[in-house]
């Protein structure tokens, strides 16, 4: 750990940054005095329960609530039409409106098992649940689309959509030159990963207590990742001024991405509370959490990588698909998977096709390292390649990693690479782990029929992102020395276990020159402090820490100015240590900081001219757009060849997380992420049956890692300060990103005497490991996946659309070969309402086109402004034009649009982001 | 639903109440008695967050009915530290070893440790770890909980 901070301000002698101090939060939490949402009850609180859909897809014929309303203690029942009296627009994590219709309660049709249909308000939670169970719903059931494979061939689940594709990015075909590279390479290695669906499963389930305070104010207690973000979200969703919404979340029992955005149930409770005269509380139970909360992952990727005969990377292509469920918290083709697939490696060329798919399952939400698939597929492919080419996997990485000496450089997708150390982390790791000794031990063990394996993986991670998308902003620190001499700070950060009240206090104590014990940090209430998006994207230590540091330095300067004036000394001669203000060479002048504070607040006539009374400073830190964290991990396992059980024997993490504010907090973040990685690789699984029923409904089915599944982690610190104020790098998500490939590689190494894990299907259950050991389909995975394919083929055969049904054929069907639309004399000229499906959600725009012969000009207009273009072409119903944009980064957008009657369809090539779909209709 | 009058001692104080037969001890402790340090993480006996000590034994309060605890002595996490606020050795060990992050699983972990290390009990580290395998912590990867177990065993031997 970096005990001495490289960017020390030189104020106090006592350093608090880098110390393993006890956490401020713990005394409260260890004595049962935490305040989680369900712990709060207001006078008159009533309780909410939901009746939920029991089928995955269908139309609602009728809902009979009469029996439920008869139960004593039931106060009200609300359906979609009742809730709709309080309008609310559900939005994605990026504050963009959902592109498919979504309402808090199912309105007319249901799209997944667990879709909430009715809300019951009752005296107690038990009564509300009793009543909800008595609501009788009659459905007209439709064939559900459950898997990605079914989504590809089945009919669209959402009204007014032409396919189940939620977003598509990238290239349909491998670019010609890359295809030639792949084809002609000495080695072409393919890795396929089928990642299971995951429940974020924070120990505290979702919960909200909402109370309307008169006609203009709303107070929410809600378990979330940032009270500020929730206030902003609801203020936009409800069209209320943000100041009218107070959001309080003092203690939160974990989030891991789930609680970024309020979803259907929270929205329903808030709408109900706007309409109902008493405070309403909903606390999700675990059954609901597992079966009806948003979920994560369920992705498939096939990656092809070409190597030369020395194992150097030549080119790569991938096809990636992600199950978005019915209502994702942002339609997602996961562009970050591709952006971060290769910047840590010298990869000359990469292309991809990336798609998100709507299905009749729970919606997709974030989970720690949502783009983690890049590290998993790349690092497991590299090990497979090492075995196939016959190179040591460490050597293979060393040949291809981007070392500091190679920087600055730019990745093949245009990501600037100038501050990453995965190679250096790997080298440090190897110094701490004797690989040759392990290989000897492994060989001896094999002789005795014991199968040991070593897995190594390296990665980089974008952290502390700010400024490129709506919710990701800087952080605000407001630091005060109170008249008592105690220091308080209001931060825009928020802890769901991160311990920001501790780490921020350390930053402040360090730079102000006071005792850690004398600093108190307030957060968890949007009426305190400025906007901050909270815990998302491993950002709070980096940005919040930077804000706390700079604000404290500014405040120290203010104290020094005052002291210099009062004691007739020079500012340079004043120092602050342990809460005492000293003047160099005059020990008799030393005063407690509180004495100066008293003067600053209470004796204005003693202050220097132009000196603002009080000792208070605020600073909002806007960091560089992104700060990279690097790491290399090693893991040793033993696989029992009889049972297929995996035992993890050792795990070493070599991490570059920059300046470490508190080693215990940093190690805690890494360890927590690694435990979740172990869960993803070995245990956790949220499967659906063929009818779309989630089948892991309790913690007896959904297996979380226990203490006996998780080894003791060892840490090698390879820290180099980043370029941010304070030099921190984010550590919130990394363990969950690098952990899975490290463990899979160790297992694959142990299994190598038996064969390859040809297709990596997670979790690697004992049965799936026996598939490799016994070289047959012990687990039934192959049969199941093959069986799925057969089912899909049958499905595709059956519902051939009836041409006499009056259905309008899709536009594509009337486009003649060569893309020429029959109505050739139609023109694109005029005004259009267009939608561009960007990776951050659909972007609505107005378009105006002018046609002169074959020349096309005009403009596109979005809320951010209008942009004109000229020099486009128009021929045979096809429009092509380019637009250069500056945000979120400098790229040229290349539009290629097809006119079909009064509709436009087409594509926009967005530089490194690949290709996005465009649609439009005349305005 | 039938109502039942019950009475028990919670953290040294008498608590009476009227509950339905189906009311769990966990719900009674949280909602009737106000001990919100009792956390409900699954309500089906797997996560261990709801663990309290009843008549000297650590039990999952989501699996015990309030009526079953009628007449017993219950200790929740609120009753562990001494009245002046000095942490119980288990709480101190957890604090010293950074055994918690969000703190939601913590009351259950602490109560199991407390029950197993009470009075003359001298569990081995392995026994404590085995007991901890009945507690799910989603945050910490159990590193600090392991350290706390070690401190409790070594402290106990000293
Ligand atoms: S709430 Fe009792 S074991 Fe989980
Ligand atoms: S500390 Fe969060 S669940 Fe254990």
TrEMBL record, chain A:
Pfam families reported for this sequence: Ald_Xan_dh_C, MoCoBD_1, MoCoBD_2
The EC number(s) this enzyme carries: 1.2.7.4
Protein name (database record): Carbon-monoxide dehydrogenase large subunit
Keywords for the protein's UniProt record, in alphabetical order: Molybdenum, Oxidoreductase
Gene Ontology MF annotations: anaerobic carbon-monoxide dehydrogenase activity; iron ion binding
Alphabetized SMART domains for the sequence: Ald_Xan_dh_C
All residue ranges annotated as the Aldehyde oxidase/xanthine dehydrogenase a/b hammerhead domain in the record: 31-143
SUPFAM superfamilies reported for this sequence: CO dehydrogenase molybdoprotein N-domain-like (SSF54665), Molybdenum cofactor-binding domain (SSF56003)
InterPro entries linked to this entry: Ald_Oxase/Xan_DH_a/b, Ald_Oxase/Xan_DH_a/b_sf, Ald_Oxase/xanthine_DH-like, AldOxase/xan_DH_MoCoBD1, AldOxase/xan_DH_MoCoBD2, AldOxase/xan_DH_Mopterin-bd_sf
Enzyme's top EC category: oxidoreductase
Domain of life the protein comes from: Bacteria
Organism: Novosphingobium chloroacetimidivorans
UniProtKB/TrEMBL annotation, chain B:
Domain 2Fe-2S ferredoxin-type as annotated: residue spans: 4-80
Keywords in alphabetical order: 2Fe-2S, Iron, Iron-sulfur, Metal-binding, Oxidoreductase
InterPro entries: 2Fe-2S-bd, 2Fe-2S-bd_dom_sf, 2Fe-2S_ferredoxin-like_sf, 2Fe-2S_ferredoxin-type, 2Fe2S_fd_BS, Beta-grasp_dom_sf, Diverse_Oxidoreductases
Pfam families: Fer2, Fer2_2
One MF term in the entry's GO annotations: metal ion binding
Listed EC numbers: 1.2.7.4
Gene3D superfamilies noted in UniProt: 3.10.20.30, [2Fe-2S]-binding domain
Major enzyme class: oxidoreductase
Coiled-coil intervals, chain numbering: none
Protein name per its UniProtKB record: Carbon-monoxide dehydrogenase small subunit
Top-level taxonomy: Bacteria, Pseudomonadati, Pseudomonadota, Alphaproteobacteria, Sphingomonadales
């Amino acid at each position: 750990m970096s005990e001495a901070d490289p960017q020390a301000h030189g104020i106090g002698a006592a350093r608090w940054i880098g110390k393993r101090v006890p956490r401020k939060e713990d005394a409260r939490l260890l004595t049962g005095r935490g305040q989680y949402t369900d712990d709060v009850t207001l006078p008159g609180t009533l309780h909410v329960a939901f009746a939920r859909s029991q089928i995955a897809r269908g139309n609602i014929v009728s809902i009979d609530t009469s029996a439920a309303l008869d139960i004593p203690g039931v106060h009200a029942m609300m359906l979609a039409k009742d809730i709709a009296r309080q309008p609310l627009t559900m939005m994605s994590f990026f504050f963009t409106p959902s592109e498919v219709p979504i309402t808090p309660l199912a309105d007319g049709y249901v799209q997944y098992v667990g879709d909430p249909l009715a809300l019951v308000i009752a005296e107690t939670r038990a009564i509300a649940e009793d009543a909800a169970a008595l609501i009788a719903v009659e459905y007209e059931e439709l064939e559900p689309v459950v898997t990605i494979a079914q989504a590809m061939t089945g009919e669209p689940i959402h009204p007014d959509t032409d396919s189940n594709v939620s977003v598509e990015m990238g290239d349909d075909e491998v670019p010609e030159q890359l295809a030639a590279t792949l084809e002609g390479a000495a080695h072409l290695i393919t890795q396929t990963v089928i990642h299971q669906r995951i429940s974020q499963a924070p120990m505290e389930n979702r919960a909200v207590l909402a109370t309307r305070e008169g006609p203009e104010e709303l107070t929410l207690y809600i378990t979330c990742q940032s009270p500020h973000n929730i206030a902003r979200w609801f203020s936009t969703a409800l069209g209320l001024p943000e100041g009218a919404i107070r959001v309080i979340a003092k203690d939160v029992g974990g989030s891991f991405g789930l609680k970024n955005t309020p979803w259907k149930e929270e929205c329903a409770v808030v709408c109900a509370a706007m309409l109902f005269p008493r405070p309403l509380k909903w606390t999700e139970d675990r059954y609901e959490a597992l079966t009806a909360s948003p979920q994560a992952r369920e992705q498939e990727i096939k990656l092809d990588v070409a190597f030369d005969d020395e194992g150097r990377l030549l080119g790569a292509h991938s096809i990636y698909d992600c199950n978005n469920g019915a209502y994702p918290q942002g339609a997602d083709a996961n562009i970050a998977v591709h952006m971060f697939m290769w910047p840590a490696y010298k990869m000359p060329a990469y292309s991809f096709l990336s798609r998100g798919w709507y299905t009749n399952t729970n919606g997709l939400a974030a989970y720690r390292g949502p783009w983690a698939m890049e590290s998993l597929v790349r690092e497991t492919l590299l090990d497979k390649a090492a075995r196939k080419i016959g190179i040591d996997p460490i050597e293979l990485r060393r040949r291809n990693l981007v070392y500091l000496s190679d920087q600055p450089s730019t990745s093949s997708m245009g990501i600037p690479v100038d501050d990453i150390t995965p190679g250096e982390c790997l080298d440090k790791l190897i110094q701490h782990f004797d690989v040759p000794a392990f290989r000897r031990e492994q060989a001896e063990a094999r002789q005795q029929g014991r199968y040991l394996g070593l897995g190594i993986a390296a990665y980089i991670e974008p952290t502390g992102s700010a400024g490129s998308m709506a919710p990701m902003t800087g952080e605000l620190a407001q630091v005060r020395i109170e008249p008592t001499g105690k220091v308080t700070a209001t931060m825009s950060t928020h802890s769901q276990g991160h311990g920001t009240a501790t780490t921020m206090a350390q930053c402040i104590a360090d730079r102000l020159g006071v005792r850690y014990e004398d600093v108190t940090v307030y957060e968890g209430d949007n009426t305190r402090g400025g906007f901050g998006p909270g815990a998302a994207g491993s950002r709070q230590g980096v940005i919040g820490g930077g804000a706390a540091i700079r604000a404290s330095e500014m405040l120290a300067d203010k104290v020094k100015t005052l002291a210099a004036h009062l004691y007739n000394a020079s500012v340079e001669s004043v120092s602050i240590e342990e809460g005492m203000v000293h003047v160099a060479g005059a020990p008799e002048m030393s005063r407690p900081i509180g004495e100066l504070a008293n003067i600053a607040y209470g004796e204005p006539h003693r202050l220097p001219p132009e000196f603002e009374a009080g000792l208070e400073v605020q600073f909002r830190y806007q960091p560089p757009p992104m700060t990279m964290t690097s790491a290399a991990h090693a893991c040793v396992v033993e696989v029992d060849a009889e049972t297929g059980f995996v035992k993890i024997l050792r795990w070493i993490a070599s991490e570059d997380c920059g300046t470490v504010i508190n080693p215990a907090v940093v190690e805690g973040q890494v360890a927590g992420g690694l435990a979740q990685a172990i869960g993803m690789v070995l245990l956790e699984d949220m499967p659906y049956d063929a009818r779309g029923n989630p089948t892991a409904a309790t913690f007896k089915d959904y297996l979380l890692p226990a203490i006996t599944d998780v080894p003791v982690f060892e840490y090698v610190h390879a820290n180099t300060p980043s370029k941010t104020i304070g030099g921190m790098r984010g550590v919130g998500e990394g363990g969950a990103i690098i952990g899975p490939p490290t463990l899979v590689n160790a297992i694959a190494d142990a299994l190598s005497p038996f064969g390859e894990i040809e297709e990596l299907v997670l979790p690697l259950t004992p049965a799936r490991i026996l598939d490799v050991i016994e070289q047959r389909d012990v687990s039934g995975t192959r049969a199941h996946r093959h069986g799925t394919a057969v089912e899909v083929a049958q499905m595709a055969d059956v519902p051939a659309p009836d041409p006499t049904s009056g259905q309008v054929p899709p536009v594509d069907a009337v486009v003649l070969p060569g893309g020429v639309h029959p109505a050739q004399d139609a023109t694109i000229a005029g005004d259009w309402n267009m939608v561009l499906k960007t990776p951050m959600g659909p972007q609505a725009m107005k378009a105006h086109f002018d046609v002169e012969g074959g020349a096309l000009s005009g403009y596109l207009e979005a809320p951010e402004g209008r942009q004109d273009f000229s020099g486009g072409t128009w021929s045979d119903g096809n429009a092509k034009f380019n637009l250069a944009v500056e945000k979120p980064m400098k790229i040229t957008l290349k539009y290629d649009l097809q006119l079909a009657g009064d509709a436009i369809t087409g594509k926009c090539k967005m530089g490194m982001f690949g290709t996005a779909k465009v649609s439009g209709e005349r305005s | 639903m039938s109502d039942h009058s019950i009475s028990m001692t919670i953290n040294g104080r008498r608590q009476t109440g009227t509950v339905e037969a189906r009311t769990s001890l966990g719900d009674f402790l949280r909602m009737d008695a106000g001990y919100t340090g009792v956390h409900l993480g699954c309500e089906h006996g797997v996560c261990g967050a709801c663990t309290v000590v009843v008549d000297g034994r650590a039990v999952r309060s989501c699996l015990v009915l309030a009526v079953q605890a009628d007449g017993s002595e219950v200790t929740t996490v609120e009753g562990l530290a001494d009245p002046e606020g000095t942490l119980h050795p288990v709480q101190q060990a957890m604090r010293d070893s950074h055994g918690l992050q969000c703190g939601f699983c913590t009351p259950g972990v602490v109560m199991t440790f407390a029950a197993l290390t009470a009075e003359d009990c001298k569990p081995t580290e392995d026994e404590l770890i085995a007991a901890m395998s009945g507690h799910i912590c989603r945050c910490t990867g159990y590193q600090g909980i392991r350290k706390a177990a070690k401190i409790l065993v070594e402290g106990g031997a000293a």
